[in-house]
Each structure stands twice: as structure tokens, then as C-alpha cells.
Amino acid sequence: MLKTISCGEINVNNSGETVQLAGWVHRRRDHGALIFIDLRDTTGIVQVVIDPNETPETHKIAETFRNEWVVLVIGTVGLRPEGSANPNIPTGDIEVRATEVQILNQSKTPPFEIADDATIDELLRMQYRYLDLRTKRMHDNIKLRHRVVKYIRDFLDNRGFIEIETPILTKSTPEGARDFLVPSRLNPGTFYALPQSPQQLKQLLMVSGFERYFQIARCFRDEDLRGDRQYEHTQLDIEMSFVDENDVMELVETLYSSIVREIGVDRVSSDNFPRLKYDDVMEKYGTDKPDLRYDLELVTLTDSIYETGVRILNTAIDNGGIVKGLVAPGCATYSRKDLDNLVNFVQTRGGEGLIYIALDGEAANIETLTMEHVKSPISRHLTAEQVIEIAKRTEASPGDLILLAAGAAKLINTVMSQLRQEIAVRLGLANPKRLAFAFVTDFPLFEWDEDNNHWEASHHLFTSPMEEHWSLLDADPGKMKARHYDLVCNGMELASGSIRIHNRQKQERIMKFLGYTESQMEDRFGQILGALEFGAPPHGGIAPGIDRFLTLLTDHAESIRDVIAFPKTQSGADPLFNTPSKVTPEQLKELHIKVSENR
After folding, report:
1. If 540 and its partner were Cys, which of 113, 314, 499, 534 is the partner (CB 3.0–4.6 Å)?
2. For the chain, percent helix, then strand, then coil, each to nearest 5?
3. How far is CA 481 from CA 277, 439, 529, 538, in A?
4. Rounded CA gap, 458 and 442, in Å?
5. Are 103 and 71 in contact (CB under 8 A)?
6. How distant is the alpha carbon of residue 220 from its chain centre?
7. Is 455 buried (19+), middle (13-18) or exposed (0-12) by CB count in 10 A?
8. Do the Cβ atoms of 361 and 449 come closer than 8 Å?
């Protein structure tokens, strides 16, 4: 090894020792005759001092050093002079007085400063990702990823789980997103697919008798990208035999609460994650992945509002829509500009508009409200009694701002959920140091696809309904509830899982209901259907996303791209490798593929 110790490991206990270091020149400072080098390696930074009076030849070499040059340093560890300690770094009490230095490699001037506080265009960061990864922020993120994955492996190993790798080249099956397809050279006209998840494979492992399986699985989905989504992502894949929902949820609850304590970010509000029903969270928060770090619950006001006779609201109700309200606490004094910004926020997300009712803080309490205490564009349609009723329903107080939106239920839930998050951001209600986990359960088994006029599986078609709901499949499928559960945290879905169907006849009933023919079932799902006839045990599992979880564990990750070593941009490009890229005509010919320029 070129090193006898790493830069970040040196401390006062090493005083007087001769050490040999190697790393990058983080910064060079000339103080008169003395040269100070901040030397950086993967463990941290240490200060190196070169004195021309002690080592003139070494000093002459150090004068040529530039940032990001790779150098070797031999020197003696000593305490820094009184008053010159740096409390901001772990090695701030000591320095290394160099006796010899050697240039191992030079560096061009980097396209950006290698520093956490540097403002860098993200495209440039991605183009030079190997330089971006040198920053302490990115180094810490990747190290955290290693620690979390290692902890997961040890945790599950101690509980009898077997880690099993499943194929990357597999069969294209409907999983909810587009598959990435891989042409087969030896079988012209046929294709493999990269797995969206190892769903069927892990169920086959349960049939194989591996009762506890896990995998740190790479998954691929050709879908639109955003801050919490990539073409490639990593998930913890877990499957267990002879379990019910609570067994799976309790395992994940223990795993996640122990991870955040073990890695030193103990911010979990409770080790017992609440179980919330889907219908309840949609009513209160408008989304199935609510942020529970703050209250701000939505309230359905359809009946109360209809009695006011406000035409624009009643028209929406007459068309089958709903009215939902949200209280912005202490915001009755919002300016017209502030209110217009909120209206614009709703409209840019598909809502037709937003109506506000500002309650003057001068009122002693809700019961004493008069119309003089009310500012609203619909004031002339309201009576004091109606305002008091709306205020009571929304639990508003004098000084609060009540916000109302009307329209189709699905749209209003989405719009008001996003408005809830926006109000929380404006008021600083979401504590960034808190992790508010919860499980959402009792999802609908099916969703109605209005565009194609048919039912679709809400989760996936292997999810079991509640046992008592099988009788509803033909009579009222919209009322069927799934044995499906999601882990959510701070407004983000972290994991999704379910208890699976383990009987072929029942699995075929679901597939037929969803419109699959006998030949389609055999072609796409023959392997799993056949396996279910050979003593398949009751089983279930869950697939937590590792990338999303890591973004919550760091204080400075703006998206999952910051916890992935080599991610894609939001357009799916990789500026480092300049992909996607074209291939040679010879490669296409080998694969029996012809590229058409016409769309």
C-alpha cells in the first residue's frame, strides 16, 4: 500500500508518528514561505505543512501542486499551533509536517470546483460524474447506501432469509409500465425483457420451498422520469411463505426503524408505524401516500356548500363532483397576490380554480363570527351561520384561511393533496428531521380505466382479494378490497406489497375477469399458473425501494439521482457515456433488426 494511514483517520494519538499519505490536493494555500496543503482521500481531509527551512527540495515540488493533483506525502504528525485548530473537520487538531512529497499524477483544471457548497449545473455534474462523486456530499451518500444495504443483508440473514439472484433477461409480462426489450440474436424476431420486478420469480421460489427469500434487486421500467424515478432502480425484494399481512408489515417496521437508529439518524416518530385504511387517507389527505408530519386534513364539504347556492360550486356538484376544503392556519391576512398565487397553483395542476374564505382574527371565536369578519369572493352568497358551519366542519379558527375546490373526485383529491403540501411548505410545517412512517392498507383490488372502459388491477394481478370478497367478483368488483399494503413516509411511497393468490383456479378467475383469454394466460403466465398446481404455499411479500429511502435519510439529497452513483437525467440520458446512442449497421444486422426513420 502507498499509505500507512488514511487522511481522515489521523488524530492526536498519532502525534510524533511518521506517516505516509496519498490522496488528492483539495486546496493549496501559500502563507509566506510556508505552504499548506489540504490533502483529501476517501476518509476525509488532513492539513499538510511544507516548510522551506526544513525541507527546501520538498517545498520546491509542493510549489507546483494544483487542485486535484494526486500526490504522496511522507511526514510527521503533530498538534497544530495554539489558536489554529479547525473545529469543522475531525482532523482539525493536528497537521502533518511533510519531509517528502511525490507527484503521482497531475490533473487538468476541473470544470467545476470540487466542493459541497459549489453551485453546479446538474447536467455538468452528470457529464463529469466521476468528479462530482469526489465531493464529500456525494461520497457520504454513496457510503450511506453501502451501510444501509449491508445492514439489510445482515438483518435478514439473522432472521433466516436466503439471498437468491433472479434473471435479468426474462419474459415480457404486463406489470404496469413499458418493458425494456432485448432482442435475441440466436432466435430472430424474439425478445427478452428486463425485469420491472422479480414478481413471478419470487413466487416461484416460494413454490420451490425457499420460505424466506430476499434480493437487492435491479429493476427496469421504461416510464417517464422525475425526481423519485429512474429507468433503473434498486429495490429490496422480500417474499415469505406461511404469513399474513401483519407478519410482513411487522418485519419491515422493525427493519426500517432499526436502520435509522443504527446509522445515526434516529428521526422516527414511533417504532410502531400506524396502519391507515385507503379510504380514510384518500378522504383526509387526497392521496394514498400522505405526509403525516403535519395535520392539515382535507374535509369534504359537498353537502354544506350545496346549501349556499353558489352557482360555480353547485354546477360541479350537479355534475357528480365534490367540494373539498383545507384550512391554512393563520393565513387570513394573505395579500391578493398571495391568493392569486394559490389559485394559479391549483389551475396549473388541472383544477378550475380555488375559492377562499378568510376569517378575521379580530373575532373572539368562531361562534361570534359575523359577515364583517369574512372576506371571500362568495361572501354575498353566504350567511354568518353558513360560514360558522363551514368553519366548524374544517376546524378553522379566527385568523385562518379556508380554501375550497370543486370538481370530479379524482381531480379534486389530487389538486387538494398537492395544495396541502404547498401550504405546509409555505408555513414550514414539515420537519425535515422527522420521518413519519405509516402503512396504508385495504386498497381497492381493481381500478376502473375510463379511457379504455374496463377494470384494471390496482396493484398487480397476483394480489389476493380479502377472502370474504371473492363473492363480489361478478356482482360488484369495485367494492373488492385487496390484501395489499404500502409503506409511506413524508409523502413518498417507499414500498408496496401484498399477499398473493396461491391457487390456480382463483388466479385464473382474476385473469379472466381482467380480459385475458385462455391462450393469453398460457402464453404470458403459463409458468406461474403451472407452478400453482404443485403445492404452492400461502405467501406474500413486499418490495421497498432503496433509492427513495436513502433520499429521506440524507439531509441534502434533492432527488434519487443524488444517492445513485451513475444515474440518468430526467430525459433518460447519460451525459457521461452519451447514451442512448446509435449502434453499427453490423450489430443491427446480427440481431435481424431494421431501424425505420419514419414514425
Report:
1. 499
2. 35, 25, 40
3. 11, 15, 23, 18
4. 11
5. yes
6. 16
7. middle
8. no
First to last CA, the chain: 57
Cell 430526467 locates to 570
User: How far apart are the C-alpha atoms of 341 and 45, rounded to whole Å?
Assistant: 46
The string of pLDDT tens digits covering residues 21-68 is 999 999 999 988 899 999 999 999 999 999 999 999 999 999 999 999
Decide the pairing of beta strands 454-457 and 401-407.
unpaired
Burial degree of 90 (CB within 10 A; 0-12, 13-18, 19+): middle
Summarize pLDDT for 129-169 with one digit per residue, the tens.
Answer: 999 999 999 999 999 999 999 999 999 999 999 999 999 99
pTM for the full model? 0.91
The cell for 130 is 466521476
The pLDDT of residue 306? 78
Residue 375's SS3 state is strand
- Note the residue count of the chain: 599
Number of H helices, E strands in the chain: 17, 22
DSSP string, 299-361: EE-HHHHHTTT-HHHHHHHHTT-EEEEEEETT-TT--HHHHHHHHHHHHTTT-S--EEEEE-T
Decide if 302 contacts 322 (C-beta within 8 A): yes
- What is the helix (H) or strand (E) element at residue 194, kind and residue range? none
Q: How far is CA 110 from the centre of its chain?
A: 31
C-alpha angle with apex 202: 198 to 207, nearest 5 degrees?
150
CA 543-569-232 angle, to 5 degrees, is: 25
pLDDT over 80 (residue 558)? yes
Instruction: State how far the Cα of 159 lies from the Cα of 27, in Å rounded to an integer.
Output: 48
Using CA atoms, how far apart are residues 397 and 360, in angstroms rounded to an integer?
9
Residue 34 in contact with residue 50, Cβ under 8 Å? yes
The label of the residue with cell 369574512 reads 374
What pLDDT, in 10s, does the model give residues 113-128?
998 888 899 999 999 9
Distance CA(24)–CA(22), nearest Å, equals 7
* Nearest residue to 531 via CA among 507, 564, 554: 507
Q: In terms of Cα–Cα distance, which of 41, 133, 64 is closest to 20?
A: 41
